Design the sequence.
């Protein structure tokens, strides 16, 4: 006789191996399911957040957030015509790239956005890193030295301090982001001034004004040269002149006055720094240093700026060499955590620390030879790359891992273990488009992926870890939207302080997940939502069972479709549908008659505004025959 079996709580998608290995409390197939603490059911809808406006077409190939102190969060958007937009003013782009740019990375340091165009593998050849301060246009980071001018120095009034003898003077520009360029050190750009007697000042003229973005100039000088000057200014010791800062881009004269003993702050490093910074595939903030990863001419050699000077990168020693002969290829990503810089190749992880000397002396140690990352696949906690409770989330081509592994688990246990077959369906050539965002407030993981032959993200995997952050307890679902989820990210609502999940599409418009929406994209798209449970019983021992009734503790609205299947789907039955209610006050039930060794149940809503929230499923079933007739 059939018997009522224990309630089944749905614990998420399971897609690895044949259907028969799927536990009965998981889904061997499902779509658009969201989880709460006690229920699983139809996800909410996505509503339009930002549509085409001003001169922006609405296309969002990549979106990064840009947060300035004391301001609302901005979005920097790449469209299909190589233009970058700031969503606070869509009347004109902040930057138009000269060539084709498929993607870009962004990192905020000291209230400024550093922007790097790339192709997902390395920076765009010939392109550079840009800096944007939230006003006007983005410009090239760093800056060229002064050139093509004649600096003049003559003896000034008496009562000064400059010591008798030869001094060299030169000029460097100061940009709007606080960067000091290399000085002009060619020909007439430097002046060899001879103080014939002590106790005089020096009057400088012909000080050049700089290009757009210049906010000041600095005068640098050498101490008395004596009889040893070899005629090469680059081989001398240079210092910032006290009171040698012109805090505008207008004045062309300055009187300087100093003892040699007052020359305390070295300016030697200026002459060796890069005038522009080559574009990379990823940007990292490492304790105030900008790390540029994926220079197309040296993909295994990230560039590293001076501390607290993100645009000052030394040509001579501002780099880290990361195992250039390794089969893992070039460096693709990085993240800073508790004083350690982790650098990732596609299948390698390295760790390096600041030893107090130049970055060229830092020695990376390989910490994982199997797991690596691409340009967006190191998890961001909300929108900041880093760790949650000392653990980072890393997606590579074999799964989503906790890094370092959690106690009691190993690197061979990805969080995506349950959906391994789905993960293997990600297009390996476009795995670099995968993004990982962690919402620690809602305890969810969002991953957009390009499945099958897709060349940009086509689906979103959503992992709910309210029941536990491990491969056994995380609950997975696969979401599909009416448009491609090309770029994903999380924002914080400034009023409620709740997280908001947003999606930008290459097909147009930015959308946000909304718990007041029961359709996608403002009512125009039905959310098809279903769960197909694993077969029950999980091991029939060869007996043939008869399923007689399906009972559901369920809430919702609209019509719930019901289906029953036997093993290999050789037997499939469409059952009578159920009408859902927000407060039904009872279990809902439907009769069934499925005779098979095992049975699988599917529940589905697919009409406008229909939805369900399932607490538990119960089946009335029992053995009918101990064996089939032969």
Sequence:
């Amino acid at each position: 006789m059939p018997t009522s079996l224990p309630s089944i709580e749905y614990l998420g998608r399971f897609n690895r191996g044949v259907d028969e290995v799927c536990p009965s409390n998981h889904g061997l197939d499902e779509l658009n399911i969201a989880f709460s603490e006690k229920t699983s059911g139809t996800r909410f809808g996505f509503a339009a957040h930002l549509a085409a406006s001003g001169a922006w077409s609405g296309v969002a190939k990549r979106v990064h957030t840009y947060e300035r102190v004391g301001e609302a969060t901005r979005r920097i958007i790449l469209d299909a015509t190589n233009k970058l937009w700031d969503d606070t003013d869509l009347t004109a782009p902040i930057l138009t790239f000269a060539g084709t740019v498929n993607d870009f990375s962004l990192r905020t340091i000291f209230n400024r956005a550093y922007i790097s165009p790339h192709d997902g593998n390395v920076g765009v050849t010939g392109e550079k890193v840009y800096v944007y301060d939230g006003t006007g246009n983005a410009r090239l980071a760093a800056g060229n030295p002064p050139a093509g001018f004649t600096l003049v120095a003559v003896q000034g009034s008496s009562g000064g301090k400059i010591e008798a003898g030869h001094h060299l003077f030169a000029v460097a520009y100061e940009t709007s982001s606080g960067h000091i360029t290399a000085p002009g050190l060619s020909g007439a750009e430097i002046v060899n001034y001879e103080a014939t007697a002590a106790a005089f000042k020096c009057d400088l003229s012909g000080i050049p004004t700089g290009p757009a973005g210049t906010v000041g100039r600095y005068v640098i000088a050498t101490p008395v040269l004596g009889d040893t000057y070899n005629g090469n200014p680059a081989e001398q010791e240079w210092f910032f002149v006290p009171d040698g800062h012109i805090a505008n881009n207008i004045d062309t004269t300055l009187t300087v006055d100093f003892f040699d003993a007052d020359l305390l702050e070295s300016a030697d490093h200026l002459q060796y720094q890069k005038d522009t910074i080559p574009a990379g595939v990823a940007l990292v903030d490492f304790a105030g240093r900008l790390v540029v990863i994926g220079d197309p001419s040296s993909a295994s050699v990230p560039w590293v700026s001076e501390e607290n000077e993100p645009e000052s990168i030394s040509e001579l020693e501002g780099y880290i060499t990361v195992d250039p002969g390794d089969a893992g290829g070039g460096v693709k990503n990085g993240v800073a955590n508790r004083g350690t810089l982790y650098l990732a190749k596609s299948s390698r992880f390295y760790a390096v620390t600041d030893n107090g000397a130049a970055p060229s002396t830092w020695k990376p140690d390989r910490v994982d030879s199997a797991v690596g990352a691409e340009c967006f696949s190191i998890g961001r906690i909300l929108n900041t790359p880093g760790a949650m409770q000392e653990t980072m989330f890393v997606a590579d081509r074999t799964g989503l891992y906790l890094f370092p592994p959690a106690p009691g688990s190993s690197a061979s246990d990805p969080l995506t273990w349950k959906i391994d077959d789905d993960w293997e369906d990600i297009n390996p050539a476009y795995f670099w488009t995968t993004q990982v965002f962690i919402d620690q407030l809602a305890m969810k993981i969002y991953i957009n992926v390009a499945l099958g032959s897709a060349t940009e993200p086509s689906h979103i995997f959503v992992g709910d870890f309210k029941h536990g952050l491990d491969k056994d307890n995380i609950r997975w679902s696969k979401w599909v939207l009416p448009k491609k989820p090309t770029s994903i990210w999380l924002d914080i609502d400034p009023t409620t302080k709740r997280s908001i999940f947003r999606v930008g599409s290459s097909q147009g418009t930015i959308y946000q997940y909304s718990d007041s929406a029961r359709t996608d994209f403002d009512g125009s798209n039905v959310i098809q939502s279903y769960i197909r449970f694993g077969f029950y019983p999980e091991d029939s021992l060869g007996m043939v069972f008869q399923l007689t009734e399906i009972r559901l503790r369920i809430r919702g609205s609209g019509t719930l479709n019901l289906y029953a299947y036997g093993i290999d789907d050789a037997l499939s039955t469409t059952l009578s549908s159920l009408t859902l209610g927000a407060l039904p006050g009872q279990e809902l039930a439907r009769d069934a008659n499925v005779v098979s060794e095992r049975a699988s149940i599917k529940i589905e809503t697919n009409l406008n505004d229909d939805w369900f929230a399932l607490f538990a499923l119960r089946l009335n079933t029992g053995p009918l025959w101990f064996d089939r007739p032969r």
In short: The radius of gyration is 32 Å. The mean pLDDT is 93. Residues 128 and 279 are 4 Å apart (CA to CA). Residues 3-42+528-625 form a domain with the Jelly Rolls fold (CATH 2.60.120).
